[in-house]
Amino acid sequence: MSQDFRHIHFIGICGTAMGAVAAAMREQGYIVTGSDASVYPPMSTFLESKGIKLSEGYKPENLPANADLIVVGNAISRGNPEIEAVLNRKLYYLSLPETLKQFFLRGKHNLVVTGTHGKTTTTSLLTWILKSAGLNPAYMIGGIAKNLGQGASLHDARHVVLEGDEYDTAFFDKRSKFLHYLPELVIVNNIEFDHADIFDNLDAIKLSFRRLLNIVPESGMVLINGDDKNCIDVAENCRAQLVEVGFSANASRHIKDVAYDAHGSAFTLLDTRFTIQMVGEYNVRNAAMAISAAHFYGIPLSAIAKAVAAFEGVKRRQEVRGEVRGMTVIDDFGHHPTAIRETLRGLRHQYPSRRLWAIFEPRSNTTRRAVFQHELPAALGEADGVILAQVARMDQLAADNRLDPAKVVADIAATGRPAFYEPDVTAIIARLKPLVKERDVIVILSNGGFGGIHERLLKEL
């Protein structure tokens, strides 16, 4: 099918995944153009270095007269002038996941990593193991692994490792993205309620995962969290080979003899001892999934163990950003209560005798809402002190549907821990400065830039 196309235009080209696919298609010899609301480095310079012409702003005239295919980004919605012109002119268009399927995934060994938490770390580690074993996989990851140096490489390869997101595909296709990825192997790390802007409840999310497992071939493999009842439930009628990975004794692939220290974690799986440079139960689970997947493709356990030990982690996952006056500032992408809780517990192992501060920005489409009003205090309460920022884009949500940070703070303070609600980064730093002392650990929890708070803390504390 791809041989019929010559000129491909991307609407929303500067998104991380869109940009990576656009660059890969340019390298395959296609003429590629694109547009976005904002065009700025580093993505703009990266794309321009590939010979891709960019247009800033969405306008009908951006559409090339001879474009054979329009790729529509997930952030594009009806009313966008460019997509309205595509529809009016009846041009051929695809979503990004459909484009991946048509141009990159057919006939390949596709390994799809899914779940509410741990997708990026597990996908990165699995990619690194395959790469270390000489398989040279293509990959698409929603973050940057330190060992890989980039989030995507869609070169021609037999194996493709994909971070599989349950979020919807496009404004015209509300199915989960991962349903387009032609999986041969699927990892399901865990399943919880998330993405409250598109899913009504947990059952709706579980339905999406059931549909995914229903398209794994009988010759393929499904690895699920054997300690998660939601994972066990969605895999009930799976026709592919199924392996439960977990800490419980009844898990067919049992994780045992776990030990933590300030430098990482160690555990036994498949009668082999593994060490990782990451701390905490969730990171052990992530590693066990990646190890099990690599084992399915015949990589020797000794080679897997060597690669796992050398894995340096992922940017924005418990990443140390710097130290100031003996205090350590850490960046973490955590925004779901479970992810926050496990991140803080992991940091407890890593910094056992130090005071831990959590600074949280309610920014995701779920944590901006009141969905986790009662869960967040317990999760953030794993820290010794907490500061909450104002809900991002709060004007877009009705008050009765919006998280109440002041109430979260009050619930934490009622347990005896210092907790504060401050409206912006300047106020947060002013509040924190007289409270912190040498050897404190400050973790910033946000799925966004959080107003450059990391750099400001390192300069102003």
UniProtKB/TrEMBL annotation:
Domain Mur ligase C-terminal positions: 316-448
Residue intervals of the Mur ligase central domain: 113-294
Keyword Ligase found: yes
GO molecular function terms noted in the UniProt entry: acid-amino acid ligase activity; ATP binding
Pfam families: Mur_ligase, Mur_ligase_C, Mur_ligase_M
InterPro entries, alphabetized: Mpl, Mur-like_cat_sf, Mur_ligase_C, Mur_ligase_C_dom_sf, Mur_ligase_cen, Mur_ligase_N, MurCDEF_pg_biosynth
SUPFAM superfamilies associated with the record: MurCD N-terminal domain, MurD-like peptide ligases, catalytic domain, MurD-like peptide ligases, peptide-binding domain
Protein name: UDP-N-acetylmuramate
Organism: Chthoniobacter flavus Ellin428
Higher taxonomy: Bacteria, Pseudomonadati, Verrucomicrobiota, Spartobacteria, Chthoniobacterales
